[in-house]
Amino acid sequence: MTSPATLYGRVAVITGGASGIGRATALLFAQQGARVFVGDYRLKPESEQALAAQGICASNCDVRNVCELQRLIDHAATTSGRLDILVNNAGIGMVKQIHDVSEADWDNCLDTNFKAAFFGAKFAIPHLIRSGGGSIVNTASNAGLLPRAHDPVYSISKMALIGLTKSLALCHAKDRIRVNAVCPGPVGDTGMMNADLDASIDRAATEQLFIAASPLAQAFGRMSRPSEIAAAILYLVSDAACMVTGTAIAIDGGKSLGVPPNC
After folding, report:
1. Which CATH number does the domain housing residue 136 bear?
2. Considering the domain boundaries, does residue 33 fall inside one?
3. Are 203 and 243 part of one and the same domain?
4. What phi, psi does 86 have (nearest 5°)?
5. Are residues 148 and 23 in the same domain?
6. Are residues 216 and 114 in the same domain?
7. DSSP string spanning the chain?
8. How far, CA to CA in Å, does 67 sit from each of 63, 89, 116, 160?
9. Alpha carbon distances (Å) from 44 to 19, 39, 51, 221, 246
10. Does residue 66 share a domain with residue 154?
11. Could you list the active site residues?
12. Considering the domain boundaries, does residue 109 fall inside one?
């Protein structure tokens, strides 16, 4: 016997859904019976075809462009007649100290990681209300739980995203809309991680540094996987989490807990 599809009949929009955590989430949602719409800035024909093979509708969307973001969400809702889930997953990293950050750098990071989630929620909430409620999940970071010295602007964007999560959860509980966040640590096989590793002088050594930063990653000898983050997102949007809202779940191998042993 197989368990019933958790998301049967529901409609979901996922930003940044062509790779990494977003792609893993889109595939998992589709497997669980959801009708899934994906938007991505770097959508390639092969990615679009692979998603389409699983019944997932993918389109180009630059979440920094509010009109494109609204078009993605409205298209999903009007095409399907409802909207039940929004996953604000699109995001970028920025490893720069404050004296090296330009106004364009600031705008790019905050617009992608924070502003897009705000406006994504704004556009989704009326559709969610018409559907009788629903769920929004924001992909934050353990950098949103504890500041990190090497990427202060990125940390600011993710801290703001967690604040947005809690504020919207409080505002829209009356509408039966739940708003939560996941806070991954280093996750392998994502666009952001691969870019960092490819830019390093010694890829293998840099990967080991990421693993060493998280106690559980050290214990297992690997970083988190996109599928593991997707599983947490599935829980948050499912009926099993019907009383869970305003949370920020750390999925970082214990990286945000504090100073590990032997340090």
Report:
1. 3.40.50.720
2. yes
3. no
4. -130, 125
5. yes
6. no
7. --PPPTTTT-EEEEETTTSHHHHHHHHHHHHTT-EEEEEETT--HHHHHHHHTTT-EEEE--TTSHHHHHHHHHHHHHHHT---EEEE---------GGG--HHHHHHHHIIIIIHHHHHHHHHHHHHHHTT-EEEEEE--GGGTS--TT-HHHHHHHHHHHHHHHHHHHHHGGGTEEEEEEEE-SBSSSHHHHHHHHHSSSHHHHHHHHHHTSHHHHHHTS-B-HHHHHHHHHHHHSGGGTT--S-EEEESTTTTS-SPTT-
8. 9, 18, 11, 22
9. 10, 11, 11, 32, 34
10. yes
11. 154
12. yes
Task: Identify whether residues 218 and 240 lie together within a single domain.
Answer: no
What pLDDT digit, counting tens, does each position of 13-38 carry? 999 999 999 999 999 999 999 999 99
Q: Map tokens 């640590």 to a residue.
A: 185
Is residue 125 in a domain?
Answer: yes
- Measured in residues, the chain has a length of 263
Residue 177 reports pLDDT greater than 80: yes
Q: 35, 27, 26, 46: which is closest to 8 by C-alpha?
A: 35
How many structural domains is the chain composed of? 2
Q: What is the pLDDT of residues 110-131, one digit of tens each?
A: 999 999 999 999 999 999 999 9
The separation between CA 48 and the C-alpha centre of its own chain, rounded to angstroms, equals: 19
Same structural domain, 121 and 17: yes
Both 153 and 124 in one domain: the answer is yes
